[in-house]
Amino acid sequence: MNSVARPPGPLVLVVEDEPGIADILIAYLQRDGLRTRLETDGLAALQVAREIRPDMVLLDIHLPGMDGMDVLKNLRADGDTPVIMVTALADDVDKLLALRMGADDYVVKPYSPPEVVARVRAVLRRTAAAPKAAPAGVIRAGRLEIDLESHIARSFSGDGERFEALPLTLTEFRLLACLAAQPRRCFSRSHLIETCLPESDAMDRVIDSHLSKLRRKLHNAGNGELIETVRGIGYRLWPGE
Q1: Does the structure show a pLDDT above 60 at 217?
Q2: In whole angstroms, what is the distance from residue 151 CA to residue 173 CA?
Q3: pTM, two decimal places
Q4: Cystine design at 76: which of 102, 160, 168, 175 (Cβ 3.0–4.6 Å)?
Q5: CATH number among 3.40.50.2300, 3.40.50.2000, 1.10.3470.10, 3.40.190.10, domain 11-129
């Protein structure tokens, strides 16, 4: 019997500068089927969050680089990624401030790691109950994410732990965006030339060359064979799980 690959679990960005606490928390999260990424510096965590777009952020307040409250403020300016504050600050004023700034929950140290995991799952269920479309200008197909405004294409890395930017040329980016915008649709070579190389007099074999390089880069990023050749017609993209 063929086994069915399970989709990767939600990705949780843990922002905690105390190694002992971080190790225990990550162990419990991973045991519950969640993927994790650890950052110990507030500013670095904000940059990473913008790059990998986690499903959840567990955020301490007292951090080097940038205070957790400032990280929360910037995250809310960027979007609506769920954030749970995990901190030793038990004052109601701090809690109310964090919640007013947009935190989804607030957990005070010392805490029970299973309780934190339960709160993470509860917030993820709430956000999943009201699914949101991809941001304007962003195409998502399987493990691919293509940002049309920044001209950056990302893919889940081979270990499924993070997003990695794909080193694409402008033509390769245009081809990937065109194919990913309508997964499973077969595009003729002439359509791809008109859409992705409008200023060029490229022939079919030029498109074949660009797609060959694009395939290799997708494969090297752990995506397998996403682009399929349809004999006598053109190409289509089959998004991965």
Answers
A1: yes
A2: 7
A3: 0.54
A4: 102
A5: 3.40.50.2300
